[in-house]
Design goal:
This protein is mainly α. The chain has nine helices and no strands.
Length: 207
């Protein structure tokens, strides 16, 4: 295990109950620093109940005190005697309480990051392509009540995951744009050759 069992809830508790820096909390919980700052500002994880990592044995009080005394140090997770199996990739699980927020998150992603593919959006918020398409086309049954909201603020994905998806989409877009001019340049070149041919008078003599 390389991060707390409930990273967002742990970050909420650390923000509220310690003087650790955003960097220390972000690295321990494997979150983006902006997410931790959002927790402190009340814009991220507002409804998440904090989880004390010391009570669950994931962090010792001595380790917590050590890092609070020195901002340059980093928290070390207490190792379990039995190693946890790594989580395999699969459909993202979304708590029942947050499932109604998915359409709002999809609408936000479609508006602010149109370069993202349906597959990327599906992986970020755990939804289906038909749902994404219906929101893109504004044919969703509840479209009038959908209000675009940042999926990170809603707790549906992490800032690191969103940044990575946007970067991948931007790279694909740039590659596609780089290929486009090469196919359009050929007709222009042919036209240039036609334009430089000398004009011949009607009587056939050269001027």
């Amino acid at each position: 295990m390389t991060q707390p069992l409930m990273p967002m809830a742990t970050a909420v508790w650390l923000v509220d109950n310690t003087v650790l820096t955003f960097t220390q909390i972000a690295e321990f919980c494997q979150l983006h620093e902006l997410e931790v700052q959002g927790i402190a500002d009340g814009t991220v994880g507002a409804h998440i109940v904090g989880q004390d990592p010391t009570s669950s044995g994931q962090l010792s009080q001595e380790e917590l005190d050590r890092c609070q005394a020195d901002p340059s140090t980093r928290l070390k997770l207490t190792e379990d005697d039995v190693k946890a199996m790594p989580r395999t990739k699969g459909p993202r699980y979304t708590p029942v309480s947050k499932r109604q927020d998915k359409p709002d998150a999809i609408a936000w992603l479609v508006r602010h990051h149109p370069e993202l593919t349906d597959l990327q959006i599906s992986r970020l918020v755990g939804t289906t392509k038909p749902t994404i398409q219906s929101i893109r086309e504004r044919s969703h049954w509840n479209i009038q009540n959908i209000k675009p909201q940042d999926p990170v603020g809603l707790g549906l994905c992490r800032q690191l995951e969103l940044d990575e998806a946007v970067q991948v989409a931007a790279e694909k877009r740039d590659k596609a744009a780089a290929k486009a001019p090469s196919t359009e340049a050929e007709p222009a070149a042919d036209q240039a050759e036609v334009d430089v041919e000398p004009a011949v008078p009607a009587d056939g003599t050269e001027g």
